[in-house]
Amino acid sequence: MSHTETFIQAAGAWFLHSGIQADSGGVARYYRSDAGKYAKVSTEITGYTVSTLLFLYERTSETAYLEAALRAARFLTRSAWDSRLGTFPFEHASNGDGGSALAYFFDCGIIVRALLSAWRISNEPEFRDAGIAGGRSMLSDFRARDAIHPILALPEKRPLPYEPRWSASPGCYQLKSALAWRELFEATGDTTFLRAYESVVERALETEEKFLPGETNPEKIMDRLHAYTYFLEGLTPLLARSDCADAFQKGLDRVSKYLTQIAPLFVRSDVCAQLLRARLYGESIAGIPLDVCAAEREASQASSFQAASDDPRLAGGFWFGRRANRPLPFVNPVSTAFCLQALALWEDRRNSSFEARRQPLI
Fold first, then answer.
1. Nearest residue to 254 via CA among 217, 229, 277
2. Domain span including residue 116
3. I need a labelling partner for 211 at 20 to 30 A (CA). Which of 71, 232, 246, 342 fits?
4. Angstrom distance (rounded) from CA 236 to CA 356
5. Non-local CB neighbours of 87 within 8 Å, separated by 6+ positions
6. Hey, which residues does 152 pair with through a beta bridge?
7. CB neighbourhood size of 109 (10 A)
8. Cα separation, 319 vs 298, whole angstroms
């Protein structure tokens, strides 16, 4: 077993045995090591975890990954989906703390893509049907004439006023979530979904240059790098288009520049992994020259975030980030998912076996 495969196996074990997935199938947003506590179950993070476990299953054929993925998918269809409102709320209701009930466009797209992945591998109609319902609610609830509302207040589905932080404003990052519409078109043939995805592409291309840096605080710029790479990921179906390939290549260079500048102060593991994945997809699909030295550096950075511990709540998971070379106390499913996939794909590329398959991109 290669060194990289050892990393991947340890990360997979963390998903299965750390307790990050509750008995219900739902997945906590993170484990906080300094407090010894899990965060609330998150519908978005459960969606990411479904996609991750299915990636691991396809790579290893270990049925434990498939079983955990389908348990999480059934949580999304049977518990998280609010059939009365016709949406996926931000956090599962049983974890409510009296705060406002919200639905996020971005989260819904991540969940729909996860359910479609579960349907493709299991052929269970429940997952396809829920994915279609979620995609239709995204069409009807979040779209305005010139933007996509990022957050709705429930139950009335009232758009919240936009705020300066990236996740509370429309932006090019929403293209990652709009991939759900592209995949729904592929699953159903309904061109309404395709047109919706294409409209987000055009809007994102018009606005993406304004997204970076978007802040003066270096830590907030690092956070926006994470979001901006979502834009790059959302472009992957269209890299045969010269304008999309050009925006993608320029975007890689911009993220790399800011990451190098800011990392000594604050660095997120997911940004390192997302940039590496994007480089690999750009080279494979669009022939964008790969900066091998930079890719090796990003792979090394990503792998350095994996937690080594006798505590199963930590062992094999990936830390969210480091500030001044000190790890922040969050072991995070999304960081772990992105890092393990990036390292796996980098290993494949080094072995001349990389395939730029878009649907498994977590």
1. 229
2. 3-350
3. 342
4. 9
5. 81, 103, 108, 134, 137, 141, 152, 154, 157
6. 103, 159
7. 30
8. 15
Angle at 125 between CA 43 and CA 62, to 5 degrees: 70
- Domain-located, residue 359: no
150-198 pLDDT, tens digit per residue, is 999 999 999 999 999 999 999 999 999 999 999 999 999 999 999 999 9
Query: Radius of gyration (Cα) for the chain, nearest Å?
Result: 19
Q: Count how many domains the chain has.
A: 1
The answer as to whether 356 is a domain residue is no
Q: Which residues of 240-269 are buried (b: 16+ CB within 10 A; e: fewer)?
A: eeeebbebbbebbebbbebbeebbeebbbb
Q: Which of 344, 232, 248, 341 is nearest to 287 (CA)?
A: 248
- Say if residues 349 and 280 touch (Cβ distance below 8 Å): yes
Burial class of residue 31, CB neighbours in 10 A (0-12, 13-18, 19+): buried
Amino acid at 350: R
* pLDDT of 21: 98
357 in a domain, yes or no? no
Residues 289-320: tens digit of each pLDDT: 999 999 999 999 999 999 999 999 999 999 99
Q: Tell me the HSE value of 112 on the side-chain side, using a 13 A CA sphere.
A: 30
Name the maximum alpha-carbon separation found in the chain: 53
Alpha helices per DSSP H over 210-268: 218-235, 242-262
- Give CA separation, 242 vs 15, 234, 278, in Å: 39, 15, 17
CATH at 269:
1.50.10.10
Q: What is the DSSP letter of 315?
A: T
How far apart are the C-alpha atoms of 344 and 86, rounded to whole Å? 36
The pair of three-digit structure tokens given for residue 290, joined into one six-digit string: 């790969």
- Crossing angle, helix 333-350 and helix 269-286, to 10 degrees? 40
